[in-house]
Amino acid sequence: MTPWVAGIDLGGTKIEIGLVAPDNSIVARRRFPTEDARGPASVVERIAACIEALQAQAGARVAAVGVCTPGPVDHLNGVLHDPPNIPGLHHAPLAALLSERLGVPARLEHDAKATGLGEYHFGAGRGERSMVYIIVGTGVGAAIIADGEIYRGAHNSAGEFGHTTLDRYGAVCSCGSRGCVETFMSGPWLARRYAAAQQGGAPTLETEARIDGEAIAALAGQGDPLALHILSEAGDALGTAIATLAMILDIECYVIGGSVAHCGELFFAPARQAVPRHSFRSVGERVRIVGNQLDTDAAILGCAWLAAGAGAITMWPRSAAPKYGAASLQWVTRSHLLCAALSVFRLSFAAF
Ligand SMILES: [Zn+2]
Questions:
Q1: Which residue ranges make up each domain of the chain?
Q2: 280-323 tens-digit pLDDT
Q3: CA-to-CA distance for 134 and 144, rounded, in angstroms?
Q4: Distance 176 CA to ligand 1 centre (A)
């Protein structure tokens, strides 16, 4: 039986929580400021209080919770590392803290990976064997799902698509490298490119941006020639980068989400045109680039999917919930090793 679960999307500015019913519908949701400067205990307490309120509203109890945050994330131990935009939660053992407070299993995942899982299981990726989810917003990231499993790499860092090099002589990126994918298409870089083109110079991190990425999308929608050109270049860059992914991974389905993806065909059409120019015909002709379907629901449903797997395997009564400390961290590690060892049980949740 599929349980009730909660999905938690924890970002730099806001936390959004959804209560997910056994039929995979989000039946209740709330959003509130992250305020990470108040520390992990405050964040965990406000999340727990919100989930309790949502449970009372729906007349249900969750069997597990899943939470996603910007990376880097230690998904095995449920520990957030040091994402630059959430300094108050650096090295917080979020999964253990939430599990102790709520008395149910908790899973922590990187937000791009959780969102990708949401789209894969419930959105644009339904029916696909493998898929790459690419988020293009303030930053650019990706989740690679191969044969139904997230590809993590050695340290759960796989998918840093935004900081792969597209032009080794290009603009200096915030990561210190040059010509990263992100410098061609993230919202802030679209604004820099627009401002630089207006001023007749090259885009740089310091280029004054009087408008943001969403404004450029709006201008393009109104037919502004410069905004259309910038967006077309961004799409061409996206297609070129996807062609490289396709040549390496031989994955056919690429789902694009994030605020820049709201530009739709103005962004996607030049991307599709670029793919065959930079890949073998036999590979490129099979590539499909589509927009996401779930928008912000994807992260909540991806977290819920992870939570349902955790709850099914490691559920225990509330009285037996572990106390937080070194022992509970070991317990979390053991529970996730158990999850991995018993991953075959996920087959029984294929319908979730
Ligand atoms: Zn970079």
A1: 5-110+297-349, 124-291
A2: 999 999 999 999 999 989 999 999 999 998 755 433 333 333 33
A3: 9
A4: 6
Identical fold between 5-110+297-349 and 124-291: yes
The pLDDT value given to residue 10: 96
CA of 315 to the centre of ligand 1 (A): 41
Contact at 8 Å (CB) between 196 and 156?
Answer: no
Distance 36 CA to ligand 1 centre (A): 25
Distance 185 CA to ligand 1 centre (A): 12
Q: Which residues of the chain have pLDDT under 50?
A: 1, 313-352
Measured distance CA(100)–CA(352) in Å, rounded: 26
Architecture of the domain spanning 124-291: 2-Layer Sandwich (3.30)
Give residue 49 CA to ligand 1 midpoint distance, Å: 38
In this structure, are residues 117 and 145 in contact, taking their beta carbons and an 8 Å threshold?
yes
Gap from CA of 224 to ligand 1 centroid (Å)? 28
Ligand 1: centre distance to CA 172 (Å): 8
252 CA → ligand 1 middle, Å:
25
Cα 173 to ligand 1 centre (Å): 5
pTM value > 0.90: no
Ligand 1 centroid – CA 122 distance (Å)? 31
Q: Which CATH architecture has domain 5-110+297-349?
A: 2-Layer Sandwich (3.30)
- Per-residue model confidence as pLDDT tens digits over 315-335: 333 333 333 333 333 334 344
Q: Provide the 10 A C-beta neighbour count for residue 324.
A: 18
Is residue 173 within 8 A of residue 183, CB to CB? The reply is yes
